[in-house]
Design brief:
alpha/beta, Rossmann fold, 15 helices, about 15% strand
Amino acid sequence: MARRCCVPRRVMVAARALLFWALVYSYCGVCACIAGLRLLWSIGRRPGETFRWVVRENPPACLNDPSLGTHCYVRIKDSGLRFHYVAAGERGKPLMLLLHGFPEFWYSWRHQLREFKSEYRVVALDLRGYGETDAPPHKENYKLDCLIADIKDILESLGYNKCVLIGHDWGGMIAWLVAICYPEMVTKLIVVNFPHPSVFTEYILRHPSQLIKSGYYFFFQMPWFPEFMFTLNDFKVLKSLFTSQATGIGRKGCRLTAEDIEAYLYVFSQPGALTGPINHYRTIFSCLPLQHHEVIMPTLLLWGERDAFMEVEMAEITRIYVKNHFRLTILSEASHWLQQDQPDIVNKLIWTFLKEETKRKRE
């Protein structure tokens, strides 16, 4: 009898797996068709500009601004990869480690590097495959296990055994996972515009609206075509992500300057610079859902209500996975790029959370 019951169960598991991958690749095909139509439309309207690509040999001055910190490199023994980071604040102070999202790099934390260096050793990392950090060629090198191990190894290489960990977007996903897998290494967790990974995977399957907003996850499963689409019209997609009304930074006082935009264009227009970042997404469906869920350290979740990529309902649901003090702050009129959009408010909220937690410990 037991043997008979096992057969239907195995069939059910296989059927669910087949349905899941059918969904992934079907939606991937839909996204590819939409991208192809946009390409044809661009060629029809401006054929001369569609394939124009400015060669950027020299970085803009803002990337070497000494007020942001010092450019440093560390080579990890186990992986052999060399990581680039910018560090501000004195050595020996508590470590604050900053993990950027996509399509960003260490520079997206410029406001926080200046702000927190008075009391912390602030390190803004270029994640594996980004910027000046090494980019392994195979997508298997970008599985979540590898990305989590990177943060553990970097922490140890910097001479620390714990840190305040802050992540935005994809860096927020990694920050959640590091906090789950290595809780002893994270004293306080701060995540910007990314829910707990279990919330994300469960919510996206039940809410078609979020599935549509996350369409780029599926589009990025294709080889080479996503990278090609980013290069069109001199990286128009990249510029649009940060500046358009739909997805960009909305407040006039905090729009990216021309030099800021040029910094992003310089980094991502280098040969092969997009493949590593997009490879982060090419293994995501084989790594989720998670086996372990709970976060046991004090956690702050900051969210821009006008996020074009993440529905705000996921922020509140995240609360159930944090088995410690949890604070959620949703900022109205703020975009997905929250720490660049409203840096003064974000910095103030982080200071408040850090000092509250210090006071709570003393009591």
